[in-house]
Design a protein that fits this description.
The protein contains eleven helices and nine strands. By secondary structure, the chain is α/β, with parallel strands linked by helices. The protein starts with a strand and ends in a 10-residue tail after the last helix. Bound molecules: ligand T3D.
Length: 257
């Protein structure tokens, strides 16, 4: 069985981390395969990506048996060849990525989840910045995203103490968008992906670009970028369709063009 499951259905690319007996911990094979699948998601056919984990966990981060193996990958390679490319690919993908956190998300697993565009979690899911517990620092973009999402004070506390945070606490802190009760989680999280897959994909891409940029640019630069990206959005077929549908009082039929 492959460590990553991948399926395209109704314009959605479904990626499932699939090492359930290891709580979907990342080994090199899974990290590289995940990158291949993120690359496949560049296809025009896919208008939204839905990322989840198989079994009980979303992901327990780095496979610690692999790092303990003297023949396993070196730590610098783990970051430069596994996690950093994954985070970059997610942030740069020209369509929304939904992280559907179905269970525990620890270490790199937690930080890959929170770098996605829309993060939802099942009520019983938990988030753990597990790094300090094994003598490491947060990686996979965590030092960038976490303080920006929840503020410096809470980010420092969570990363230093390595506390387990419930999905509801994570939502209250601003780490994720919504929590759904366990019995409706799948249905509700699919619904978000389905909605996104029928929206004006290019406008969503430019929105993602603008908000990515907002983290690092100043006010004037951001207004300038909004101008450029809005002009690009206004040249899409979907914009024409959106305006026309409004005037004709009907539901728009966006094609992602
Ligand atoms: O050098 C580097 O490491 C660089 C890379 C850094 C990136 C990172 O992600 S560092 C952080 C690595 N992750 C962790 O430290 C988390 C380790 N796991 C845990 O703390 C716990 O397993 C959980 C809190 C995630 C879940 O706890 P619990 O009690 O619900 O489950 P469990 O029994 O501990 O785990 C279930 C199984 O998954 C178990 O397998 P077994 O014993 O039944 O065969 C366990 O060994 C396996 N598992 C869980 N996490 C990992 C793992 N196997 C390998 N690596 C893991 N990270």
């Amino acid at each position: 069985m492959s460590s990553i499951l991948f399926e395209i259905k109704d314009s959605i690319g479904f990626i499932t981390l699939n090492r359930p007996d290891k709580y979907n911990a990342f080994n090199r094979e899974m990290a590289l395969l995940f990158q291949d699948k993120l690359d496949e998601c560049k296809s025009k056919e896919i208008r939204c990506v839905y990322l989840t984990g198989a079994g009980m966990a979303f992901s327990a981060g780095q496979d610690l048996a692999e790092v303990a193996d003297p023949n396993g990958p070196k730590i610098t390679h783990i970051l430069s060849e596994h996690y950093n490319p994954i985070v970059r690919k997610i942030r740069k993908l020209s369509k929304p990525v939904v992280a559907a956190v179905n269970g525990v998300a620890a270490g790199a697993g937690a930080n890959i989840a929170i770098c996605c565009d829309i993060v939802v979690a099942t009520e019983s899911a938990t988030f753990i910045q597990a790094f300090s517990k094994i003598g490491l620092i947060p990686d996979s973009g965590g030092t960038f995203f976490l303080p920006r999402l929840i503020g410096l004070q809470k980010a420092l506390a969570l990363t230093m103490l390595g506390d387990k945070v419930t999905a509801t606490e994570a939502e209250q802190m601003g780490m994720l968008y919504k929590v759904f009760a366990d019995d409706v989680f799948k249905e509700q999280s699919f619904k978000i992906a389905e909605t996104l897959s029928q929206m004006p994909t290019k406008a969503l891409h430019y929105t993602k670009q603008a908000l990515n940029q907002a983290f690092i640019s100043g006010f004037e630069e951001q207004l300038h970028d909004e101008e450029l990206l809005q002009e690009r959005a206004s040249r899409t077929q979907d914009y024409k369709e959106g305006v026309l549908a409004f005037l004709e009082k009907r539901k728009p039929n966006f094609k992602g063009e």
